[in-house]
Amino acid sequence: MLITRCLRALTALAAAAAIGVADAPQPPLELLGWKAVWSVPAGEEARLSFLSGENLITATPEGTVTVHDPGTGAIRRTIHTSAPSVQEAWATTGTLVVAGSPRGSLDETLYGYDLASGGLLWRRALPPSGPRTDNNVPRILVSEYGVVVFQRGSGLLSLDVRTGGVHARAADAVGCEGQPGSTSRAVLLLSYCGQGPVRLDSFDPRTLRRNWTRPVTTRHTTAEDAVRLWFRRASEGFVIAGVDNDEFLFTQDGTPLPVFRLDRAAASWPAGGDIRWSPPLEVGHHPDAENDAGFDWNNAWPLPGYFISRDQDTGRLGAFPLDRPLTHTANFVGATSHLAFIHSDAQVTAFRPVYGRPTGPVALGGVPPQAWPDACSLLTPRDLGHGIRPVSGSKSLGDLTLPRPVTCDWVPPEDDAEVISLSVSWVSSDAGALFAAAAGQTKRHESFDYDPTIEGDGIFSYTAHGAGGTFGATLVNVGPVIVRLTSPSRLLQRLAAVRVRDNLMARYRPGERVRPPERTGGWTHLADAGVRADPVVDGGVVYAGADDGLYALDAVTGRVRWRSSPAAPMLVDGVLYAARPDGVAAVDAATGRMRWNRRLDSSFAVVIEAGSVYAGTGFTHVVALDAATGEQRWRFRVPGSSLGRIVVAGGTVYVISRESLLSALDAKTGALRWRARLGTGYLTPAGYLTATGEALFVAAGTKVFAFDPATGKTRWRVRFGDAVGYAPVVIGGTVYLGDLAGRTYALNTASGEERWRLTTAGDSGLWNVTESRGVVYVGARHLHALDPVSGEERWSRPLTARVSVHEDTVFAQDEGGTLHALDAATGAPRWRFQTGGRFQTRPVVAGGLVYVGSSNGNLYALRATDGLPGPSPADLDRLRQPASPAPIERDLRPSNGDRLRSRH
User: Which of 143, 394, 402, 628 pairs with 663 at a CA distance of 20 to 30 A?
Assistant: First the structure.
């Protein structure tokens, strides 16, 4: 058996190492951990990577199968299967078996290929499964002796591996719930029949006769119980079966083995040199390293990984660290006599065992506890002042006690000031790789934003957005230490991170200095939440609305002049007007003082026009407020259940309801001028309005209308095949419309006659149109520059982006948060800047700077010539007051004797 060969190989390696040091009587070397030796690309699906005899196989859902040498990773052959969509793949006895769905079908077909030549051996369609549910999806099990198909209600079907012919059939027990599994030479079925214990059965794959039956649980189930049954991939010779949250370990012949979770006895390296460890059973985090105070075990970013092995004598489980960080998506592929494999981040990585003499506790990755620095010493009174306090209970990991606190809070003396929490997350000789992996995974995560302006030099800051709100953290890495900082204030978090980095550098890299932030003429303002409102630049001041406040910033330096409560600014005659969740407010632009604050049931669709503020409130009313005093001038209830957009033009207020009812109100009195029914039924959203002095354009579902603004008479209407998904854009005598199928229409504003259309591959969700210097720019699946008369394309770029134009530059904001500056005449790229988040404002250009806000909480002022950002004003202040080195514990690096050895 392979398990025997593995044990012999491990014993031989240990014996050889002992012979090498025979002259100096020392204990034999022991298994210390695992070192990565090579990686090969693999698909995203972990189940399509597996070991089969002397082959490592990776497959893609598109049907390409690659056979590798498991010793080196070298490609032996590539097989292009005929399965249009591959769900699973296996290999045994020189045969590759692939399960896939024919194009346009949910039913599965099995394909058999010769592993040596790649030639098709057989093909067999499985019985139709009907509606796809967890209960009736066919389960395919492949062993050396046959292919077995298990399907609820149809029983077991055994096929010959080389021919696809039927060996045997067997009906499953009526009323039983089962979860199939397999080993190299048996088919397994974990089942219960509505009452009694859960049992594990082994079947011969050729005859489907039962080999043995073992009870798995002693507790009895009832018909009402919902029991979750599962198998987990394990090394050859072992079976890991699960019932609900309980796990059970068997040998291949059905012998039950005790399952020991890692406890305090296994949290340190085993004494002596004669313990025989099995090949790895699984891969994961250290089981004790979960949700303990002061430690970062929340899988939000990679942590050290471990192969879990079993002591053959005692049955105790041991965890042996990998030499690189592990993400939560890692899956165990299998093990040979010399290597073990995991699938993670679309690649398979091979690890070899590392032998040496134990030096430190497993729970700390082999680093001695004395190497962990005191978290409270990483921020000194010279950095932020007094107020650092250790967090109670932050010195232990399970039953392992560290000599110093790993979590401390800096509590400022002011009651209303923000607290900074500092945690030593990990200490490792591979901390740099762990830090880089954390940054890489965070950048790829769709729910996380990051801050590129302080990235590098050992600092990485990120922001997460979830149902519970927005939170952020900053990671700091110098030498073997990784520190995590959190605070409600991103600015304080950033300042503290720089101080912590400087203090760590004084300990681990004395004499080195970090290059100061570059002065480019640009700057970055750090808000504590996403910047959502388009910046307003006026009189040397930038007004920026973020979720945490309305900021007035010096346009040249970025310094805060004043801050008010959250609002999206609209500047009119020196006054900032904004909608709040509970009303509308007016703020003095010079001082930030509130002029008035009108409370309403709710507020939305705020418009300022001719001395009045118009807003929707209570979902069914429109109110008009005096712009100077906030006093209500009039209030009008619009029939229907919910209002849509409000537009004001030519002394008329237009509003549409979801019941496709359009109302025109006198802007001064609120009196109804006219009403039109669009006949499009209930609308979600409630249509789109665009008004000019000459006409009102309404897009509702698949219909587009042009109304006379004075009388409400329909001038023309057109109907498209797909719904219009955006507000009409009127430029000159043309109205542009974008539908949800990706088409752009240019219509004559007077007649509705189509002038031209642009067709792209589907709706981008970012359709927008702008015009500058005789060119129309359409943002869709691609960015197009078109002749406005003929629609002829002048240039295009493969960018799905929102577009703004300033003089001879096109600014395109793509979905990935990158701002592209393009030559307006040719589309040639000039520069680009990655914000680290998603765009929530359009770029505004003034005074040689481009202002743009991001979901990561930054308002960037980029140099217009090359897109370079600049530091925050606080960064420049820090340069004038450099931090002092930490006065104590200057060197906590592990000695060479404490690091993971790789001697054989």
Answer: 628
At which of 326, 347, 364 does a domain end?
364
Last residue of a domain, which of 334, 364, 394?
A: 364
Q: Both 328 and 440 in a single domain?
A: no
264 shares its domain with 311 = yes
Whether this model's pTM surpasses 0.70: no
**Alpha carbon distances (Å) from 852 to 79, 536, 674:** 49, 10, 41
Residue-wise pLDDT tens digits, 729-744: 999 999 999 998 889 9
**Is 35 part of any domain?**
yes
DSSP E strand stretches across 487-593: 523-526, 536-538, 541-546, 549-554, 560-564, 570-572, 575-580, 583-588
- 218 by Cβ neighbours in 10 Å (0-12 / 13-18 / 19+) ranks as exposed
- Please indicate, yes or no, if residue 885 is contained in any of the structural domains: no
* 171 CB burial (10 A radius; 0-12, 13-18, 19+): exposed
Burial class (CB in 10 A: 0-12, 13-18, 19+), 821: buried
**Are 88 and 213 members of one domain?**
yes
Q: Using DSSP bridges, classify how beta strands 459-466 and 536-538 pair: parallel, antiparallel or unpaired.
A: unpaired
CA separation for the pair 154, 517 (Å, rounded): 69
CB atoms under 10 Å from CB of 666, counted, come to 15
63 and 177: one domain? yes
Residue 358 sits in the same domain as residue 389: no
Q: How far apart are CA 342 and CA 381, in angstroms?
A: 46
Count up the domains in the chain and report the number.
2
Using CA atoms, how far apart are residues 858 and 530, in angstroms rounded to an integer? 7
- Residue 262 pLDDT more than 50? no
3-class DSSP string for 409-435: EECCCCCCCCCEEEEEEEECCCHHHHH
User: To the nearest whole percent, how much of the chain has pLDDT over 70?
Assistant: 80
Residue 707 lies in a domain: no
Tell me the helix, strand and coil percentages in the chain, rounded to 5. Answer: 10, 45, 45
Q: Which bin fits 670, alpha (ψ -120 to 50), beta or left (φ > 0)? A: left
Question: In the structure, what pLDDT confidence band is assigned to residue 15 with cuts at 50, 70 and 90?
Answer: very low
The answer on 437 and 353 residing in a single domain is no
